Every structure is written in structure tokens, then in C-alpha cells.
Amino acid sequence: NPSTVVAANFILFAGTTRLNPSITRSADNMTVTLRGGLQAGTVHSLFVASRITDVQGNRGAEFSSTFTAGDPPDATQPRVAAVRPGSGASGISVQKCVTVFFSEPVNPATITAASFKLMVGATPVAATAVVDPEGTSATLCPDAALSFNTTHTVSVTTAVQDPAGNAMQSFSSR
User: Looking at the predicted structure, is the pLDDT value of residue 111 above 70?
Assistant: First the structure.
């Protein structure tokens, strides 16, 4: 009975917050759609009252369901998964670029001269950074030949973020 398919007979919660979704019915009155207010990654509870009747006046059974809408928000910090050449490598060409591979894609706009550096001690080495199109790695190429027999460090700061805004775990490698 279409007249019993009303908001008062549908109770929807997102966690402990009661929602007020809009209700629409299909032309044949066989499908009811609740729209609005669902929150990604949140447990929702739906309760349908037994006051809903069919066209002959027969009451339906009470119904309840619990579900989670959409994917939960990304809360994982990206980290450096690998560096090439590897940490502690020796005999590397003074013209060699350094590539850092990330555990997940990062926002290329957050890779800057301040957030991704090649260093000798506390002194930055002039280098150009290039981020791959997927954001899964970044390469630093020195603007001039590196110093012979000198330890160089690659640094990635927490200013580097993934597309969800999660800050990178800071990283420093030799």
C-alpha cells in the first residue's frame, strides 16, 4: 500500500546519528529507495516498521539490517618502500640519479625541493626531482657530478602526502 511507505516507517542511522533520507518508490511499488546521508566507512542500521502493508492491508514483518557504506577513508601513511641505489651502496657513478619508491601513490604536488632532498651532511645538493605519473616513485638527479668518496643522503619529509592528505613517514637513507 503506497500510503504506508512513509518516512515514519523507515528509521536509518549512521553510527548513532539518525538520518532523514528521502524515500522513493518504483512505479509498481515493489522497490523502495532511501537516498541521502550515507557516510562512507560508517556502519549504518536500517529499521523498517511492521506498519507497512500490502494493497490488501496485510502487515509486513519488521525488518532490520546493518551495513557499511562505501570504502572507509584512507588513513594509511605512505612510506618509502625502497631506494635505488640501495642504502649503503658504494662505487656508484657520480652522475647517478636516486629513485625512491613509495608504498602507495603520493600527490606529486607535495614533492618539492624542501620535501625531497639529496644531502651531504646538512648541506643540500642541487638536484632536479621528477615524479612518475602514477606517483609511486620519485627520482632525484643531481644538477652536477656528485662528490667522490662522499656519503650522500636522500631525505623525504612529512610534507610529502598521499592524495588523501596523509603525511609521509619521514625517511632518511645513505
Answer: yes
